Amino acid sequence: MPDSRNLRDIVKKQKNLLAELEQEADTILHSDLSKENESLKKEVRKLSDLLAESRENLKLASAKNAELSNALYEQVYSEKIRILQKAQKKNDVYFKAEAGGEFNRLVQLEDNLRIKTKELQNRLEKHRTDAANELYAELDILSMRATKAVTEARAALARESGAFTEYSSGQFEKLKAEQATDEMVAAIGEKNNIEAFLGGNLINKLGIVFVILGIVAVAQFTFLRLPDTFKGVIMFAVSGLLLLAGELFNRRKANIFSLGVTSGGVAGLYASLSISYFLLNIISMYPAILLCVLITAGALVLSLRYDSQTVAAFALVGGYIPIISVSDGVALAYGMMVYFVFLNLLALIISFYKKWRITMFIGFALNLAGTMYIIFNMYTMYWMRHSPGRLLDMTQLSTVLYVVFAFAVYTFIPITGNLRTKQPFAKPDTVILGLNTVFSAAIMYGVLKLFGLDDFTGIMAIVFAVAYLALGRHVEGFFLGEKHTAALFYLTGLTFVVLVVPLQFGKEWLSLGWLAQAVSLAAYGILRGEKNFIKAGSVIGGLCFASFVYLDVLLRVDDLFSYKYLAITIGSAIVLLALAYRKSLANVFENAFKYAVLVNAWLYCMYLVSLCEDFIRVQLESTAYSPRFMLLAMAIAGTFAISATLPRIPVIADKVVKTISVGLSLLGAAALLVGAQAFEVFYVGYSGFPPAPIVATASLVLAALCGMSLFAVRGAMMHFTLEYGISVEWMPFSVSAYFLALLTEALVFQFRLPATSIAISIVFVALALAWIIYGFVKRFAFMRRFGLVLSFLAVAKLFIIDLAAFTQGSKIVSYFAFGITLLGISFVYQYFSKRLAPRGGGGTADVENGSS
Hints:
Elements lengths: L1 H29 L2 H95 L4 H46 L4 H11 L1 H26 L8 H25 L3 H24 L5 H21 L3 H12 L12 H21 L3 H29 L8 H28 L5 H24 L6 H22 L4 H23 L4 H19 L2 H24 L6 H21 L6 H24 L1 H7 L7 H19 L9 H24 L13 H33 L5 H21 L7 H21 L2 H22 L5 H24 L21
């Protein structure tokens, strides 16, 4: 039974399975599978045809692309060959011209040698010289040598020119053989693709600018009397949509278009915020500050995220441009100041991470415009709210602090990135620093002038000076290779140090102020061995001297000339003492300064003498003495004193100082010689001959001056003898001749003796006897002969000039005086006659050449 039950179950399952199969067969028979299969077959045939057509188009495009590529490469190669051919032609023309010139010069040289040789041969034939044969042979040898030398030079030039020609031709052929590379084609394509730049880049930036202007225009749209809140919503919505669209495009791939859209969104947010707060007044102060912080943070994140300078630049542009639409800037001046602070902080933070030059220059220009806008509104507010009794109010203080902040920001922007990356300073960094310094200093000076703070201009210069000197020290310490940048900072700081005096004290105190700075810096630098301080002191000292000459000497801007000249003299002496103490008088500049100080000491001495004129005139008013001559005597005595002192100071004495001393000695002697003739020692209007005490005093003054001048002339001649080797006989001769001139002037012009006076003639003949005796004793032929000539001149004067005016008694005296003196001269010659006799060997007993 169990087996029959199992069989029934199997049969039942088979029937169920058969029923399902029949049902499925009926379903297939009644379905559209055949129709669907037919449609699929048609679609496959259609796609096959399309694939074949695409393959054919691709083959045609590939062929056309290959053809165009070959044409482009051929064009680039042809252009390269054309450029090389032009260069080779120019090279050949230039070198052949040079080589031709050399050959022409060689030919000309050979022709000249032949002509000269022919001329010499003709002269020999003309004069029939005894050694003609030898000279002919020498000329032939010379001609052969010249021809050989010229031939060798030609051959050498030909070899060198040929070698150069072969080398240059080989190089040109090598360049011609080089085919156009993919890099060349890509570079040319990029260079010539102006259309892509205009359409993809420039148009993008212009579109952003117009969108920002459109946002500004929305705020001013009043034709439909839109509510201010609705205007603000529209502006923020447009900016948000731009930012969202830019973000979507950037997710696919960041490019010029997507970054431009993002930049427009950031700039639009800044514009919307500024207009909503400053113009529409739909946002209060604290929410506006919060939004400004958020937008600034967002702009920073986006610019750094996409590494896009465009986003950062347009964030600044969008932040500054809407300010032009603010009509009542005075009421919102403080708010704009805070707003601009955030924009400057954005630029500063970006500069710490990225060295974006374009953003830096755009930000600087906008910051400059914003600063001027702030100053204008704050100045208007100042005059509206000004309290005359207040020295410094909030308006003035906030304006000055903002200008200082703006200056500091664009001083640190070129430095921060370099400080983080340790990169060297580039030219744009130096340019922005220079522009920032010039404009900031000028703006700060203008602000202080506008707000009546002239007394603080010097403090402004001190602040700038300290800032730049500190920056110079910082750059010198952290950037080891930036000597030029550090020097620029130091020079700028020094400039402001120089400007402290004129800005704070005015032009009247320029020389004294700069003198104090120069002496302090130079003396400190000399004593501590700091060359930079010495250079700074030298520069300021030069400015001090220039201002003193122009303002105090030429223009006489005040009545303090005497004190300023004294201060300059003392200051220069202090620097010279510092140099002498350090024994640093070695180089040319230091020695030149030393000589200038010494000459100035003499000039100041002469100036002091001139100051005594009124005093001396008052004191000698009731006496017979001439004030002018006494002033001259003081000047000459001072000159001789300085001349005698300078060479006796060992630390400063050298050849030039001795020369200066000699020059002053001769100047004093010449002044006495001229002054004794031009100025009488007695008052010109004094009638009669002065009393004996006055004459005695005047004689002592003259004698003292003459004694000093004689010693001065003697010292000068001794200097010439020792330094230049002139004969020793010139020293007593010069002193004697000078003494004779002085004595003659004293007798004629000071003691008012007539030229025909017997006393003058007797003095002449007596001096002649004395000098003859001196010449024999010291064996100086010049002196002896000078005395002899003077005696003859005295005799000639006696007979030609004097006797006609003498009385009988004067004639008797002169005859006896001359006779006795001339006999004395004769006796001297007789007594020393052995010294005139020649010695053995033809020599003389006298030392005619100056040796005693």
